[in-house]
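Researcher: Going back to the complex we discussed earlier. I've cleaned up the inputs and rechecked each line, so this should be the final set. Can you rerun the prediction on the complete assembly and write out the structure?
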Amino acid sequence: MKLVEGGVCAAKGFRANGLHCGIRKNKIKKDLALIVSDVPAAAAAVYTTNLVKGAPLLVTKKHLANGVAQAVICNSGNANTCNANGVEIAEHMSELVAEVAGVKVDDVVVASTGVIGQPLDITPIRKAMPQLVAGLSYDHLGARAAAEAIITTDTVAKEVAVEFEIGGKVCHLGGIAKGSGMIHPNMATMLVFITTDVKISAAMLQKALSTDVQKTFNMVSIDGDTSTNDTVAVLANGLAGNDEIVAEGADFEIFMKALNTVTVQLCRLLAGDGEGATKLLECKVTGAACSKCAGTVAKSVICSSLLKSAMFGADANWGRVLCAIGYSGAAVDIDRIDVAFRSAKGTVEVCKNGAGVEFSEEKAKEILLENEIEILVSLGDGAGEATAWGCDLTYDYVKINGDYRT
Amino acid sequence: MKLVEGGVCAAKGFRANGLHCGIRKNKIKKDLALIVSDVPAAAAAVYTTNLVKGAPLLVTKKHLANGVAQAVICNSGNANTCNANGVEIAEHMSELVAEVAGVKVDDVVVASTGVIGQPLDITPIRKAMPQLVAGLSYDHLGARAAAEAIITTDTVAKEVAVEFEIGGKVCHLGGIAKGSGMIHPNMATMLVFITTDVKISAAMLQKALSTDVQKTFNMVSIDGDTSTNDTVAVLANGLAGNDEIVAEGADFEIFMKALNTVTVQLCRLLAGDGEGATKLLECKVTGAACSKCAGTVAKSVICSSLLKSAMFGADANWGRVLCAIGYSGAAVDIDRIDVAFRSAKGTVEVCKNGAGVEFSEEKAKEILLENEIEILVSLGDGAGEATAWGCDLTYDYVKINGDYRT
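Model: Rerun complete. Updated structure for the full complex:
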């Protein structure tokens, strides 16, 4: 399993492109991305659980009903959500891709991210489509352009890819992601598009994705607000030439590992680049009665506004970790909890068996001033483990989300 | 039902006092409060649901097992939580009150608020007890001193009292509360102490309190972090001379109304004075399928970090209201939701039937620049109603909680 360049173009037979078409006012920011596979691909997706769902999700869900897709179109700058004509516009986007890129309209994944409740004008998308399709490329520049076109207030484009072997065939799997915030911010929509040349049935692809997101994207929180447009979609075009994966087994395990390697890295990138964030927080829970309990505890800790603020201030305020564990809803024995903070500068134990231990505030400060902090929680109840990813709460989070619309 | 002065001393036969004993470093901040009834009172309480519970809660719970109390002792500056000797210290506090004020040790309610995991020294409390008891007074100055001694980073002391009649007898009910933050901040502990001279059985008092908190204190959120020390306690000493309330009926209804009048006002004071807050947010949900659904929706809206940030920026970003309704977990029909913002400057409708309506951004800004904002949500699903109270998310919230310990 080795990391490689190329993002969504690392896998054979995928081309990508991104450009500025005019949805966003800032002309140096790309706002339209397209990914196309040379051949129809097995496809799987997971969507937001928010009852308010962006129109693109409804259209994508319909298109993916048969487990096949060949292209992904995504705009930033407008979520196309809570608009009377949203579904119509999302269908129109698919039709434009179908016409110009020569794929079936039902094989297009559509996604949008941006402000809610403002009609999305199809005109700039229609005008840009020929150029967008003409510029599709198989190399890392195309992948990069697509990665750049889906981000909003993200400070960096996010792409990861790996190379691995299944049955002697060289395979690839790569993804791009956008995190929290927009230039005209509204929802911290998370979008992830993953491509692979592995040959795998749509059913097994969906199984792999649905299993993986529980331990990866569902364990990320920037601000506790579940967007209306969250979408993670995977396209597997089979061009690696491996024997099709149609059941569990060694090949499926390798595929799951490749998928997880990419998704964990994307989670870290998303959390570390949360709106206003200065630090990546990684809460690692061990010794839980079950892995679900471990996940509940880990997520509660990284969602605590008080702990997030303390991390911004590099304050080893471990009482907030215990508090968040206590209200998480998981059944834990408070008197067996150990807590430590760890970073590149070392580890400091702050709580043993539910009570404070003496520690050097100076050493703790040095550790917490780093920009990647691990919060290590040991519950002493069993063998369940989980990791959750978050970020600190900063002045800039408030600024980004309070100062924009006026 | 008329508002009167006097806080916890408005009811007959209650004396109170507060002073600085030395738990807090800042000598101008009081840190020890005492409330004493002339006679043993029926008592009821509700506590945090956090699995990590402050030692004082365990002791109070034991003392209130028989439904009788005569005094409340409360310190600020230290939560006496996650300390090996916490229960012992809380018992010791009760014993000191019993000795010096002449009440039974089992009739003392004990509470603490402040930093977690630092042993609480009994010495300053022991030394101050004679002076604290000697200074107990029946007038509003005593009540005020107690109200001041339980607050931490609250910017104002919080007290409310009402006068009403039951069976021709003049009755009183008053309360004090502390909200979020500490001078050495850790948990946004909420403490509320209510006194009344109404004669009511402990069982009916507990019933009244448990019913009321569902619609009042449980509908307040400053930052989503449930403290380890939250406590609401009511003492009813019966000195008003009414026929004892031992069952539901007209008298109980009047008592419930008096209680609710005081608790709603305390909720508004708590939310409006949340850490760093510049605005009180009041989300009023109507037309829900049930009142539980209404409560779920209202609380989800006032807990959204994105909406709280938008309110700080006076931004009519209603998509965030819909988003928070959508992920609340309540079953609602998105296409029937109406949303409006209201303040002393007027009302602006921003969403009808789940989609945006045109509105004046200028008028919306004027409305949202006020410091008390109502978010009106109409669901169109039934007759369920609920109100939740919160505050905006500001730079100062981050500052208060990130900058302190070092």
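Model: Worth noting: Residues 181-188 of chain A have pLDDT under 50 and may be disordered.
Researcher: Good, that matches what I expected from the previous run.
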